[in-house]
Write a structure and sequence with these properties.
By secondary structure, the chain is α+β, with helices and mostly antiparallel strands. The chain has one domain: YaeB-like fold (2-Layer Sandwich), CATH 3.30.2310.20. It has three helices and five strands, in the order E-H-H-E-E-E-E-H. A five-stranded mixed beta sheet has the order 1-5-4-3-2, with helices on both faces. The longest helix has 17 residues.
Length: 110
Amino acid sequence: MEYELKPIHWLGDSKGVVRGWSEPVRRRAGEELFRLQLGSEPLHWRSMKTIGPGVREIKISERGQYRVFYVVRRRSGILVLHAFEKKTRRTSKLDIDLGKQRLTDHDRSI
């Protein structure tokens, strides 16, 4: 059986950030994104309505806490808005604002 994978579009430095993570964390992020490409949901996620409609974060707990903000768009595919290592219990305003800005910038450009 052949699948048509949804394309992933990495905004800002998100791809470089994920590439800088340790191999086990990168693998987990890749597995979760692959599930999205197949049309499924990641195993560990939550809604991030504060960033925008339909935005979610993938939650990775692997020798630390890592997050990937994304939104799935019918036309565009998967937009990875922001990726970061979470250092505190609450997601920082800086990370939320960066995700919002990248989503706004992308939507204005289309």
